[in-house]
Structure formats: structure tokens, C-alpha cells
Design goal:
Layout: H1 3-18, H2 23-26, H3 31-40, E1 45-49, E2 54-57, H4 59-62, E3 75-76, E4 90-95, E5 101-104, H5 105-110, E6 114-121, E7 145-154, H6 155-162, E8 170-175, E9 189-192, H7 193-198, E10 201-206, E11 209-210, E12 220-222, E13 235-241, H8 248-251, E14 275-280, E15 285-288, E16 299-307, E17 313-319, E18 327-328, E19 330-332, E20 341-348, E21 353-363, E22 386-393
Parallel strand pairs: 4-13, 15-22
Antiparallel strand pairs: 1-2, 2-3, 4-5, 6-7, 7-10, 8-9, 8-13, 10-11, 10-12, 14-16, 16-20, 17-18, 17-21, 19-20, 21-22
Length: 394
């Protein structure tokens, strides 16, 4: 292959990836395009599943900025990714409302707009790291998370326009993705009316650009402070009801089923848990440090991100002695309610050495990230302390 043709192909495939094209589109590409795209993905993504698309962001890619670009944000699809035409798409609002609505894309865009930065994390993030023989679902490690600026309209505005009945208690999100078999359940989630009216968004943009199909175009829900399954993609209908959804993914899926406990009483997976990740250094790194005048020791820079649920983040600490002592890290850069925070600290170390670096976060409610989260059959909510092994030398 000549150099010019190779560059053209790389440019084409970069555009394809940014557009969010998935498996259906890949099937139409020539073999060289598929091979090249697969070769490019690992630098940003770890492909956990090809169809439906489940792509995990590498920690190196996450560590490049407070805002996660669209082409780096993890992808989680339960069913096949739909392609919707904004010219014919409608948002229906029905149920316990005074006036049912059928809004076009232009009518949604004409409503008062807002933008907010929120962290989005898959409930199964960390599933592969649980100390269980096996857990069901996509075997995510730590990169099914990201932080983005979401633009759209407040769900509150849409519901107020429809008018709520006195018995309106829950908001159901219905989406355009289709199950592959007639008997397979559709993916459907609901949230309490209080959360819907508080801060939930109906987002049409991400980081000031129109959503891609993989990320929920033309409209998706963003439920701040809750795990990502609540933030339904490809929303086409909002139902206001007097009860939670009875969908499979509400009644049986996304429950904390702990060993030796009754599954019928398993609590639902809802709010984010306090958590931190280390993005620098990465696992297995060999770092050359700059000597300092004695008796000062060389310093090792450690940094990452931390987040929490609605109570908010209070503190991040770092340890290199197995958790015997903890040193506070400092927050850096931008902040926003229910976004993640960048943190960093410089640790004095004595090279040559092999270090195990740990980071833990604490939220404003006093919840501390555990050394090992409680395992459950679904592999949900793994907020175990992140440990990174690295070598340092002069």
C-alpha cells in the first residue's frame, strides 16, 4: 500500500469512528477498512463486544482531559443501534398528563436550551475485577466511564408543557432500539418523578456537537448522579405513570443480587457510588524520575479522576504503603455538580523501587471507597480501590 493511500484510509476511518458507525456499517466496508479500523480502536477503545457495540475507553485515553470527547466516550448498547432520521423522528409524551404531546426535533430545539457537564458510568464498570468465579454481562474493567458536556432541554420543561396529573409518580423512557428476537425484552427504564423534575436532561448534543448514533442520536436522557443505564439512548416516547416500569431491565435486571440473599428483595441499582481511578501512572509503567538535591527525594506525579453520586465528592487520598497511611490529593481544574474531578499529588519516593499506588475517594455523606466492594451476581457497582503497580528509577 502506498503512503498516500494509507493516509487517505486513516482519515476516512477516523471520520467513520467520529460518526459513531457500528457493526451494521462495518459490514458494508471493504476488508481493508475493517482491518484498519480494528487496528486503530485499541489505542482508544477496548472492544468488549462487537454487536451490540460495547467499547471500553482505555485509561490512557481517559487521562487526556477533563472532558471526554465523543470519540473516546465508552459505548454501551443493549440492542442494535438504530439510525433515526430527525426529519421524521417524534418525541411522544403520554400517560398521566393533561395533554399528550408529539414534538418534532425542531420543536424540541425551539424550547429553552441548557448545557451541563456530568459524569456517565456504566453500572457494570469494574465487573471483570470482582473476585467471583464469573459475573454475567460485559466484562468491563475500569474504562466504562466518561465526563461530557450535555446539551438539550430539561425534562422538567417537557413535562410541564404536557401538564402532570396528580398521580404522576414515575417517568418511563421508551427507545427506538429493537430486540433481535420477538420474545426478547426491549430495553426500558423509568425514574421517579422527583428525579425527572430535578435535573434530568433530554440531550441532543455532546461537547457542543450533535449526538452520534452510538451515543443516542437524536435524543437521549441524561440522569445526573445515577448509573448510565438510567440515561436511556434513542428516546422516542416518555410515559408518565403512577408506578415504576415493570420491564425486565427494571424488575430482574440491574439489581444487587448478593450471594445467599433472596433475589426477590435485591435492591435496585440506581445512584452512582463514590469512586476514583488512577490515570497516571498506568499499570506496569517504568518511570525515570529526576534527582533532587539531598536530603530531598525524587517526586512521583500521581493523578486521576474521582466522582460520586448526588451527595457530591469531598476528598481523594493516595497511599503507597498498602493503605497504612493516606495522603490527601489536590483537586485541579474545572468542576461542576455531578461531574468528575481531576486530582493529583506528588509523592516522594526512593528509587529504584516497585510501588503499588492506591487511590480512594470519600463523598460528602461520609461514604469511603472500599478496599474491595461487595460482590454481586450482576457485577454491578464495583467501586473497589484502584491499585496500580509501577517501577521507578533514576
Amino acid at each position: 500500500m502506498n503512503r498516500a493511500r494509507a493516509m487517505d484510509r486513516r482519515a476516512f476511518l477516523a471520520t467513520l469512528t467520529r460518526a459513531g458507525l457500528g457493526s451494521a456499517a462495518l459490514a458494508t466496508l471493504p476488508p481493508w477498512a475493517v482491518e484498519t479500523l480494528e487496528a486503530q480502536l485499541p489505542s482508544t477503545y477496548i472492544v468488549r463486544n462487537d454487536r451490540p457495540e460495547c467499547w471500553e475507553t482505555t485509561l490512557d485515553a481517559l487521562g487526556r482531559g477533563w472532558i471526554t470527547p465523543s470519540e473516546r466516550l465508552f459505548v454501551r448498547s443493549h440492542l442494535s443501534t438504530p439510525r433515526l432520521d430527525v426529519a421524521t423522528w417524534r418525541l411522544e409524551v403520554t400517560g398521566k398528563v393533561r395533554s399528550s404531546l408529539s414534538l418534532s426535533y425542531d420543536e424540541v430545539m425551539a424550547m429553552p436550551q441548557t448545557e451541563a457537564v456530568h459524569v456517565l458510568e456504566c453500572a457494570g464498570n469494574g465487573r471483570a475485577l470482582f473476585a467471583l468465579p464469573s459475573t454475567s454481562g460485559v466484562q468491563w474493567q475500569r474504562g466504562a466511564v466518561g465526563n461530557a458536556a450535555w446539551g438539550g432541554v430539561r425534562l422538567q420543561s417537557v413535562l410541564q408543557r404536557a401538564g402532570l396529573d396528580s398521580d404522576a409518580k414515575h417517568v418511563w423512557f421508551e427507545a427506538a432500539d429493537q430486540a433481535p428476537l420477538p420474545d426478547a425484552p426491549k430495553f426500558l427504564r423509568s425514574i421517579p418523578i422527583e428525579k425527572a423534575m430535578e435535573d434530568t436532561l433530554l440531550a441532543h448534543s455532546m461537547n457542543k456537537a450533535q449526538l452520534t448514533p452510538l451515543h443516542g442520536a437524536p435524543l437521549r436522557a441524561i440522569v445526573p448522579g445515577w448509573f448510565g443505564m438510567a440515561s436511556t439512548k434513542w428516546v422516542t416516547r416518555i410515559r408518565v405513570e403512577d408506578r415504576p416500569s415493570d420491564n425486565h431491565y427494571m424488575v430482574r435486571g440491574y439489581r444487587y443480587n448478593y450471594p445467599d440473599e433472596d433475589p426477590a428483595s435485591a435492591p435496585p441499582v440506581e445512584k452512582l457510588l463514590v469512586k476514583s481511578i488512577i490515570t497516571q501512572p498506568v499499570e506496569g509503567a517504568v518511570l525515570v524520575l529526576t534527582p533532587r538535591p539531598k536530603p530531598k527525594k525524587p517526586r512521583l506525579r500521581v493523578q486521576g479522576y474521582a466522582w460520586a453520586g448526588p451527595s457530591g465528592l469531598r476528598l481523594v487520598e493516595v497511599s503507597i504503603d498498602g493503605g497504612k497511611t493516606w495522603r490527601p490529593a489536590g483537586f485541579m481544574g474545572d468542576s461542576a455538580p455531578m461531574a468528575w474531578r481531576s486530582w493529583a499529588t506528588d509523592l516522594e519516593v526512593t528509587p529504584p523501587a516497585k510501588l503499588t499506588i492506591m487511590a480512594r475517594a470519600t463523598d460528602n455523606g461520609g461514604e469511603v471507597q472500599p478496599m474491595a466492594a461487595r460482590a454481586n451476581a450482576g457485577g454491578y457497582g464495583n467501586n473497589s480501590i484502584h491499585k496500580v503497580s509501577a517501577r521507578v528509577r533514576l
